[in-house]
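INFO worker-7 received task bundle
INFO bundle size: 2
INFO processing item 0
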Amino acid sequence: MIIQKRLLKFILNANWILFALAVCAGLLTESPEFTMGIICGGLITTINFHLLYKTLKQSLTPPHLSSHRVVLFKYYIRFTATAIIIGILISGKYVNPLGLFVGLSVVVASIMLATFRELTILIFKEAV
């Protein structure tokens, strides 16, 4: 259980750090539309990740166990809202699609960083 908490804490912190770095890089090097894509995509995925965490935590905490149907229903509501928001952003040409893709990749990048970090911890722990 300690590894899971450490992973979650790292991912939650890394989401915001990577998001801030991506926005700063976009502001310094790219157009405003590209940077707005990074901001919108990063906010969408980070907020979705936090809402998923909250839903799962509430659903799996022993006094308030909920049905898997409730969890899936909330997931599909979030998924549909995300698809609508992304569709509006792209079709209205409010953001650069490539910038949006970069922003949407923030959570994936933080999960990959957390995985590599845990693997190196395990490898070096076994080597000692």
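INFO item 0 finished
INFO processing item 1
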Amino acid sequence: MKSAALLLFATPEDAEAAFYDAVARGDLEALMAIWSEDEDVICTHPTGQQLVGLSSIRESWRQIFASTRLQINANRIAQWQGMLLSVHHVVEGLQVGDESTGPLQATHVYTRGAHGWRLVCRHCSANAEPAGHGSEHRVLH
């Protein structure tokens, strides 16, 4: 297994692109390399299941990848970035096998440390707004 320290994500956008690439390929090791090694990382799936810690997040994604192929098309709606923290809000179109579902809303929180930007929180839920609402890209400062 590759250590997360071996990969350097220079920007939170690099980490986010790597996240979606790993999901599309069903690559659990690449996906886990994006997460911070902090014990309090959190992942909330659209089902509402909240996972805390790398081992529970790893097992959840292992089960997802073992049962289906996912393709996520993400459109970033808003982004806030400081020196050490970046928050991205995206709307996701989800393809599960041959079936399209969604849209979903996801929030990703990244922190910058000695090994670049890492994901510390992903929260994803069903989109309550009609598609296209707020579809313009915004960067919040």
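INFO item 1 finished
INFO post-check item 1: The chain has one domain: 4-127.
INFO post-check item 1: The mean pLDDT is 86.
INFO worker-7 idle
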